[in-house]
Amino acid sequence: MAYIETVTDENFERIVLGADKPVLVDFWADWCGPCKAMEPALVDIAEEYEGEVHICKLDTVANQLMMERYAIRNIPAFLLFKDGQVIKTILGSRTRSSLASEIETGLRAQ
Amino acid sequence: MTDVADGMVRKHALLELLAEAQAQASGPMEKPAAGAPTDYAAVVPAPLMVFSGVGGHMAQDAVEEFAGRFGMHPAFVTLIAALQPARGAYTPPPGPDDWKAISALVSPLPSEADLAAIVRLWIAAFWLGEPALRSRVSDPDIQAAADAIVDLHRRAARGDVIARPHWRAARTALDALLSGATGLEAACARIICASAWDIAVAPAVLNDIVATWSELLMKDADARICWGPTEERLHLDHMGKIRAFALEWNDLSPDTRISPEQFRAEVETLKKQSPAPAERRAEEQGRALKERRDLAFRMLQGQIGLLCGVTTGVNR
């Protein structure tokens, strides 16, 4: 099973911004039903893109700093980073295929 | 993911439980007190909560638990759960007919049935059968790209192992053709695009198929309602004028403004002059709600019928 890494305000810089390959960060919270509903899709996406895109999760309740820094107002929200820059913002619930499609659009646009 | 496709379906235990639920739902039910939420636990046997239509009970771990208990493939369980009408805290619980429909699906299953294959064949039937999604798509390129995905499902149903890159290539090919496309054709093809992954690895894909399809049907229903963005804008503009009139009246001193009775009469006259009156808005919105409910019901019944046809076919 592919690995989804948990990131925090403290390690965000190192794991996400300093990564040598694209990183998708899932901004989520335990109280958010749609975020939980997307979990299986995210696990599966992590498997599909293993080695190409690193998938991370950030708990927005415990990590307010990153939430504010990236102006996250609604969750679930997914930010795709490349070379420390946000290259794609995906807001709201998505089907597995449309999340994959948005990742690919983001990567192709680079 | 546990693959139980080669395991034995413990259908008798499940049918007993479904019969129990059906009997319970047929019996006298205490009407919940006004304002009280539906007590699902009181009317739905715990293992069947996964089919209650209540979001929280359809999570992947609940599906896995149910699948393990009854020897059913998680994809089959996910599909049945996804085809149930969505219910909330204040919605009536599943009735006898809901449980009966699930029993009708499970009854013809041989205990060694490959349920993942049944689900894969259901996707193919959804695209090719009646009423076919495929016939609504006229663009030959889109049709061919969707056919390629359905073909992967059919090959997987025959036991071929489809490598991930094949799924991905088929999905991205269709996705590229649909990029920026709107309308019914694109929406029909998007349902197949949502299915483009191995359902044995990702049973949640079934939720995506049903959700994408519901979205299409709901748009279809909304399009038949005679209250679009233009009417909404006219309505809001006119309401703005009434609000401005009321604020102006409120700002005047009582000795310089018209009496409250005259004010109310004036407001009523203004309301009647609206090119998009509030009464019609309420009426159309009520019709939209009913249309959506009816459509959702017909959609679920139709697909349960289609799935029943596939499961019965497997048993022949």
In short:
Chain A is of the alpha/beta class and 110 residues long. Chain A is built from 5 helices and 5 strands.
Rough outline of chain B: flat
Let me know the average pLDDT of chain A: 91
Q: Summarize the biggest pleated sheet of chain A.
A: 5 strands, mixed
Oligomer: heterodimer
Q: Helix and strand succession of chain A? A: EHEHHEHEEH
Low-pLDDT runs of chain B? 1-6
Q: Number of domains in the coordinates of chain B?
A: 3
The number of strands of chain B is 0
Apparent shape of chain A: globular
Structural class of chain B, by secondary structure, is: mainly alpha
Word description of this protein:
The complex is a heterodimer of chains A (110) and B (316). The mean pLDDT of chain A is 91. By secondary structure, chain A is α/β, with parallel strands linked by helices. The longest helix of chain A has 13 residues, at 96-108. In chain A, strands 1-3-2-4-5 form a five-stranded mixed β-sheet. Chain A has five helices and five strands, in the order βαβααβαββα. Chain A is globular and about 30 Å long. Chain A has helices at 12-17, 33-37, 39-48, 64-69, 96-108, and strands at 5-7, 23-28, 54-59, 77-82, 85-91. With 316 residues, chain B is mostly helical. Chain B has three domains: 3-106, no CATH class; 115-224 and 283-308, no CATH class; 229-276, no CATH class. In chain B, 64% of the residues lie in helices and 0% in strands. In chain B, helix 4 packs across helix 6 (115-128) and helix 5 packs parallel to helix 13 (278-315). The model of chain B is unreliable at 1-6 (pLDDT under 50). The A-B interface holds A 33, 36-37, 39-41, 44, 47-48, 95-98, 100-101, 104-105 and B 55-56, 59-60, 164, 168, 171-172, 175, 179, 193-197, 201-205, 207-208, 211-212.
